[in-house]
Write a structure and sequence with these properties.
about 300 residues; seven-stranded parallel beta sheet; 7 strands; globular
Length: about 300
């Protein structure tokens, strides 16, 4: 790779701490190398806008501990901080494109314990279970609400036993549950009191401004002391107005690069939680959820401003 990885975090434009880790083996990084070798230098340069920036690592399969350990140790060796996503709650995604997760509550508790053990003393930013709370609020008949809230609260407690680990419980996005007050009791049941805060806009496209205003309202409703992070990975052009606006929408662009320099005390960071270029599911010709889609990635990069 010829660009962003080495440059990110080296200059005064980014905050001194924490500087988020760039995975040199990401699908985007491999795409850059492939296209450079094939002589597609301009396309490779555009994909470096993705490959050269820190993105979250999603843990959604069995045995997360070893994978977590590998990433946090690599980040520590680089003097940076890994961003991880725990995504294994039972009845995940209510049976939709990203269905899966633990078989039952006992399975999930073992999985979270393994995840937390992998962190060791290195620490990380952990986004806890995208969609899990908002889906219950919106309606998810497959999931047992009492069980899910208990498991989320358990996960917060277990992860927070690891030193230097920040935990953000996912709280959906501003368009999904427009009345943020509906999230207050669910987030409390999900352990928000012991978490560092909540995450917004994961895998969605709401603008930074809309999401920040929503986050401040939600923080106030929770008592005023909870911080939040925003997924800005694909919100450069805001939300799509057509059907299925959340699933591989056309015409989107990369958003604010990851940083803790937000200028807003309660907003801890802009993060790229959803990895740009990875499919939302088998809609609009995309591969299955989480799979790298080079054509979509290239379109996001072309439309970005940086």
């Amino acid at each position: 790779m010829t660009g962003g990885v080495a440059a990110y975090g080296a200059g005064s434009a980014e905050p001194a701490e924490p500087v988020f880790w760039v995975d040199p083996h990401s699908a985007a990084a491999r795409q850059v190398a492939e296209w450079q070798a094939a002589g597609r230098t301009e396309d490779a340069r555009l994909i470096e806008r993705i490959a050269g920036r820190p993105q979250a690592v999603w843990l959604s399969d069995e045995g997360p501990g070893a994978v977590v350990r590998t990433h946090v140790e690599a980040a520590a060796m680089a003097g940076r901080t890994a961003v991880l996503v725990a995504y294994f709650v039972p009845h995940r995604d209510c049976g939709s494109y990203s269905a899966g997760g633990a078989r039952d509550a006992a399975h999930y508790r073992r999985w979270i314990d393994d995840f937390a053990s992998g962190l060791g003393t290195r620490g990380a930013y952990v986004i806890l279970e995208p969609d899990a709370v908002a889906q219950l609020v919106a309606g998810c008949p497959e999931a047992d609400a009492d069980e899910r809230y208990e498991l989320l609260a358990h996960a917060v407690q277990r992860l927070k036993r690891q030193p230097a680990t920040k935990v953000y419980v996912d709280a959906g996005n501003a368009a999904w549950i427009p009345d943020e007050r509906r999230l207050v009791a669910p987030l409390r049941r999900a352990g928000i009191a012991e978490a560092d805060g909540f995450a917004l806009n994961v895998s969605n496209h709401q603008t930074d401004q809309v999401t920040s205003e929503y986050g401040h309202r939600l923080a106030a409703a929770l008592g005023g002391d909870k911080h939040f992070v925003i997924d800005s990975s694909r919100n450069g052009n805001g939300p799509y107005s057509g059907s299925q606006p959340w699933c591989n929408p056309p015409g989107r662009a990369l958003g604010t690069p990851p940083t803790t320099r937000t200028g807003t005390p309660l907003l801890d960071a802009y993060l790229w939680v959803k990895r740009p270029g990875e499919s939302d599911g088998t809609c609009r010709g995309g591969p299955r959820a989480g799979q790298w889609w080079p054509e979509y990635a290239l379109d996001l990069a072309r439309r970005s401003r940086g």
